[in-house]
Amino acid sequence: MLIQYFKDDATAFNAAKKGTINGKGVINNKISSTIFKFLEGRGIKTHFVDLLSDREMLVKHVKIFPLEVVIRNITAGSVCKRLGLDEGVVLEKPLTEFFYKSDSLNDPLVNRDHIIAFDWATPEEFQYMWKEALRVNEALKEFWKEKGVKLVDFKLEFGRDLEGNLVLADEVSPDTCRLWDAKTNQKLDKDRFRFDLGAVEESYKNLMERVAQ
Q1: Are strands 177-181 and 56-59 parallel, antiparallel or unpaired?
Q2: Using CA atoms, how far apart are residues 93 and 87, in angstroms rounded to an integer?
Q3: Domain locations in the chain?
């Protein structure tokens, strides 16, 4: 077992922008713990074991794949920049993208052939991550809808635990998800830090209060 510690440090644009969001660690720990429990209840295996304190989570020891799996339900962020799309277009079907984890390379977009050719994951592991990410998406859309929030997109990381099980790891929080108010489309996530929109701490607290309801 390991202890995952949640800090107030904030980064964006592959660590090109750095700062602090006061209280973020406590909020992300509580939100992630709640969501991991929710997902476990839906039969999705995670590294979560227990919430130890305001900033500490007990997790299984996991070897993380060098990949980020991104699911997009609404256009925002890098996909708009890459493809010249307007923000806020609701996709008929979720878009799944894989990125190679490397800040120095700006986390390049990769496909199945890259992943298998460079031995970042086996074909079976790739298939698991792809299908499991879509399962997580369906569960999280329901979770956030009940909180009056749109799940725009999110990033997941997967790994293999010491018993050989593939599990969801890292965190699921306003740092890793784009979350908009369902009525106003107000951004409630780390985009407020990325783009200097203000009210960063207030938005994180808003989400925590909704999750606690």
Answers
A1: unpaired
A2: 16
A3: 2-212
Of the listed ranges 12-16, 31-35, 120-124, 179-183, the one predicted with least confidence: 12-16
Task: Report the candidate in 203, 200, 186 with the shortest Cα–Cα distance to residue 152.
Answer: 186
Dihedral (Cα; 49, 51, 55, 59), 10-degree rounding: 0
Place of tokens 């809808």: 145
109-131 pLDDT tens trace: 999 999 999 999 999 999 999 99
Q: Indicate if the alpha-carbon torsion angle 127, 129, 130, 135 is positive or negative.
A: positive
The CATH H-level (homologous superfamily) assignment of domain 2-212 is ATP-grasp fold, B domain (3.30.470.20)
What pLDDT was estimated at residue 88? 97
159 in Cβ contact with 79 (< 8 Å): no
Question: Hey, what are 15's tokens?
Answer: 């660590």
- Kindly report the number of other CB atoms within 10 A of residue 101's CB atom: 15
Which residues is 19 bridged to in the sheet?
A: 10
Copy the structure tokens of residue 68. Answer: 């980020």
CA pseudo-torsion sign 21, 77, 127, 106: negative
- Residue range 53-111, pLDDT digits in tens: 999 999 999 999 999 999 999 999 999 999 999 999 999 999 999 999 998 999 999 99
Q: In what helix (H) or strand (E) does residue 139 lie, and over which residues does it extend?
A: helix 123-145
Report the SS3 class of residue 189: coil
